[in-house]
């Protein structure tokens, strides 16, 4: 009898956790951050961005409709995408929902899209994914999305400016089990030198290299990739990263190194391990504030 009761209790716990995970995958939390800096020009004081990452082409229909409604309530100045909105893995790829969502967003707001490892894989492995990258890219262009594939765009308002750069990092920096140190000068060679006279935003999918991003010159970095650590434990944080690192340092939230800031999205979707616990899908709202 005790064994039966134990089995029933374990089954109920499993069903409860499964239900919680499904709820957290299908609903989106809106988390807000404020970033202060004396380097933000007066014209960009209060500049508001919606930040998203790691959709993995999920959330068709009702969930993404609710997300669009939440974005309209914010009235952002721009939408920043920190990569992996598509899914490309083991020869399968999806991007139709990403194109639909980006069309809806770009109709209302400027959208700046930095690439993640899934977009990069889809474009790099043409022998596996065929014309998928070209089809996705052309969909982004028709929608009016600005793709930042190791390039920058500068927004100017009078004498003030913000530069936005998108980093498409080499696949070797995404290897599982081992975090490869970033090669000296890699960011300079890949992106060019960061300007020191303008506030600089970097869209860098992996948060693992925050120190390198800050050293390069990024004042504010938006990242994702870690899916919030998949399962978040109270008082500890994220459990595991996509490269199978336990308790990753930068799984979700706002981080500082001196005057440099990184904000990591917990992501909007899942892939492979389709679990979220204590880790609801999230949309970020980030406001810039000029301080003296």
UniProtKB/TrEMBL annotation:
Ranges where the Calcineurin-like phosphoesterase domain occurs: 49-228
Protein name as catalogued: Metallophosphoesterase
Entry keyword annotation includes Transmembrane: no
Highest classification ranks of the organism: Bacteria, Bacillati, Bacillota, Clostridia, Lachnospirales
GO cellular component, one term: membrane
Pfam families cross-referenced by the UniProt entry: Metallophos
Species: Lientehia hominis
Key words, A-Z: Hydrolase, Metal-binding
One record GO biological process: lipid A biosynthetic process
Any GO molecular function: UDP-2,3-diacylglucosamine hydrolase activity
């Amino acid at each position: 009898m005790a064994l039966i009761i134990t089995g029933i209790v374990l089954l109920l716990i499993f069903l409860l956790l499964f239900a919680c995970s499904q709820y957290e995958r299908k609903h989106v939390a809106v988390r807000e951050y404020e970033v202060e800096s004396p380097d933000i020009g007066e014209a960009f004081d209060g500049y508001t961005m919606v930040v998203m990452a790691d959709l993995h082409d999920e959330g068709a229909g009702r969930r993404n409709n609710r997300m669009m409604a939440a974005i309209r309530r914010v009235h952002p100045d721009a939408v920043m995408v920190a990569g992996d909105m598509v899914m490309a893995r083991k020869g399968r790829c999806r991007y139709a929902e990403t194109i639909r969502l980006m069309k809806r967003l770009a109709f209302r707001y400027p959208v700046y899209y930095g690439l993640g490892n899934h977009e990069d894989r889809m474009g790099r492995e043409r022998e596996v994914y065929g014309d998928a990258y070209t089809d996705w890219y052309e969909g982004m262009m028709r929608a009016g999305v600005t793709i930042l594939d190791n390039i920058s765009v500068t927004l100017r308002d009078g004498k003030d400016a913000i530069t936005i750069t998108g980093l498409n990092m080499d696949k070797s920096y995404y290897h599982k089990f081992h975090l490869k140190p970033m090669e000296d000068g890699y960011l300079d060679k890949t992106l060019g030198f960061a300007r020191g006279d303008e506030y600089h935003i970097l869209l860098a999918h992996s948060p693992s290299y925050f120190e390198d991003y800050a050293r390069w010159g990024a004042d504010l970095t938006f990242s994702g990739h870690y899916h919030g650590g998949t399962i978040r434990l109270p008082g500890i944080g994220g459990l595991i990263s996509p490269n199978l690192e336990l308790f990753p340092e930068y799984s979700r939230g706002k981080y500082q190194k001196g005057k440099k800031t990184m904000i990591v999205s917990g992501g909007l979707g899942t892939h492979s391990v389709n679990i979220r616990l204590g880790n609801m899908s999230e949309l970020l709202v980030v406001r810039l504030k000029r301080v003296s």
